[in-house]
Amino acid sequence: MSGFDQTLLDEADETVRVRLIVNGRKVTCEVAPRDTLVDCLRDKLELTGTHAGCEMGACGACLVQIDGRAVHSCLVFAVQADGATIDTIEGLSESGVIADLQAEFHRRNALQCGFCTPGMLVNAQELLSRVTQPNREEIRDALSGNYCRCTGYETIVDAIDAVAKARSKGGGAA
Amino acid sequence: MVTNLASRLMSRWISEETAVKARAFSYFRAATIDQALDAHARAGDDARFIAGGQSLVPALSLRLQAPRLLIDITHIDELRGVRREGSHLRIGALTRHCEMLSEPLIAEFAPLLHAAAPFVAHPAIRNRGTFGGSVALADPASEFPAMTLALDAEIEIAAPSGRRRIKADDFFIDLFETALQPGELITAIHVPLFKADQRFAFDELARRRGDYALVGCGMVATFTGERIDDIRISFFSVGNTPTRVKGAEATLIGSSLDPERIAAAQGALEGDLAPLDSDEVPPAMRLHLARVLLGRLLGRLGEGA
Ligand SMILES: Cc1cc2nc3c(=O)[nH]c(=O)nc-3n(C[C@H](O)[C@H](O)[C@H](O)COP(=O)(O)OP(=O)(O)OC[C@H]3O[C@@H](n4cnc5c(N)ncnc54)[C@H](O)[C@@H]3O)c2cc1C
Ligand code: FES
Ligand code: FES
C-alpha cells in the first residue's frame, strides 16, 4: 500500500540502475543514490564535455539540458533523472543545433581556456530558443549564473548577440 | 547575522574543509502524498523531501545535512498545477520558478509573483527550483516567502494527522524555522485573486543580477480612487524572517500617496525593521536601503504601477 520498502534504509550505498536517454541514445547506468548527474555523465558515460567546477550551483560549467531545459547537472542526483532525456554539449554539437554559436564563439575569441564554454553554449541555446531577439541586457541576464575567469564576457555577449541577429534573419551567423 | 544559503555555502566553499559529495543515503521516489509522508515517518524522520533540489543538493554536498533517506516528491501529481478555486489561486508546491513567468494564470491573478520571479537566482535554477521548496526553506533572503506575506497567502500542509491551512502571517517563525514540522509536506500555496482595484509593486537592490538581494520588497494595495484602503508590504533580506512592516502600512491606510505620506511611511521603517549586524551590510545601511526602496515602490504605486 505504502510503496515504501523499509529495507531500502539499509541500502544507502548500494547502486541502483537508472535509465536515461542521453544525446538520443538509450543508456542504463549503475549509480549510487548520492552520485550527481555530472559525475554520472563524466565518470560512467565518459561524456567529459560537461564540466564540474564548484559543484554547488554557482558557476554554470555543468549545465546540460534535461527534458529540453537547461539545468545544473551538479544540482541533480542521477537517480532523480531516471527516465529523463538528457542532452549534453556532445549531443548538441553532434546534432549541429549550436554550430552557429560555436563558430561565432570561435571567431570572436569568446573562449580561452574553454572551461566555461559548454555551460555558456547550453545557456545561450536555451535563451535563443525562448527569446528570438534578446537585447544585450537580456543576454547578460541569462548568463548571470555562468562564470568565465578568462574572457571578461564582452566577446561572449557579442557572439550570442550576433547569432541571435543572424538566426532571426533566418540564416546562420556569418 | 543576516545570512543566506548561498553566502553560507560560499564561505564554506572557500574555507578549506570542504566536502563536495553527499554522504550516502537511500532514495525513494514517492508517487502519492501518503507514500511520501509514510516513508518520512518510517525513516524515523531522518529524511528529507527533495523537490527542485536547488538548495538541498548543495546543502547535502557540503554535508550541512546528511539524512538517511531522500524522498523525491517531484512525481506526485497532486502537488502540481495552478488553478482557480473560488476567490483564490491554488499554486501547487511543485510549480517551478520559471512557471511563475510562463503561466498565464499567475500573470493575471498573482502578478506580484510574476514580477518577483526574474529576480530569483538564474534561469537554469529557475528551471528546477519550486515555489513549495522556496517557501518550505524560508530563506530570509528569498523573494517568494516574503511575497506570500504581501499576498496574504495561505500555506496548505499535509501531515500524517491530516491536512491544514496556515496563514503566511503565522508561518515564518525564525531563521529557517517555520510552522512546518518535520515530516510535513507543503502541498500548495493559496493566493487571493488580484483584483481590479488593486495595485502591486516589487523590486530589490542587489550587487549583481541573480545575487541574493541586499534588501528587497513587494507590496499589494487596494485603492478607492487614489485613497489606500488596505496595503500589505513585505521585506526580505532584512532579518531572520521575511518581514511585514505594519507600522509603515498603518501610516498609509486611509490616505493617498503624496510625498509627505511616503516620507512618513519611510520614517516608520525604523520601528518596523531591526536589521541584524552582518559582515556584509551594516544595519544602518540596510535600513537606509530599505527606506530608499520603499520610497521608490510607493512612488510607482502612486503612478498606478
Ligand atoms: C546559485 C544559487 C542562487 C540562488 N539564488 C536565489 C535567489 O536569488 N533567490 C531565491 O529565492 N532563491 C535562490 N536560490 C534557491 C532556489 O530558489 C531554490 O530553488 C529554492 O530555495 C528551494 O526550492 P527547491 O524546490 O529547489 O527545494 P529543495 O532544494 O528541493 O528543498 C529545500 C528544502 O525544502 C524542503 N522542501 C522542498 N519542497 C517541500 C515541500 N513541498 N514540502 C515540505 N518541504 C519541502 C526540502 O526538504 C529542503 O529542506 C538559489 C540557489 C542557487 C544554487
Ligand atoms: S559545477 Fe555545477 S554550477 Fe558549478
Ligand atoms: S574561457 Fe576560461 S573560464 Fe571561460
Automatic annotation (TrEMBL), chain A:
Domain 2Fe-2S ferredoxin-type: 16-92
Any GO MF annotation of the entry: metal ion binding
Pfam family, one: Fer2_2
Gene3D superfamilies to which the protein is assigned, alphabetical: 3.10.20.30, [2Fe-2S]-binding domain
Alphabetized UniProt keyword annotations: 2Fe-2S, Iron, Iron-sulfur, Metal-binding, Oxidoreductase
Protein name: (2Fe-2S)-binding protein
Annotated source species: Bradyrhizobium nitroreducens
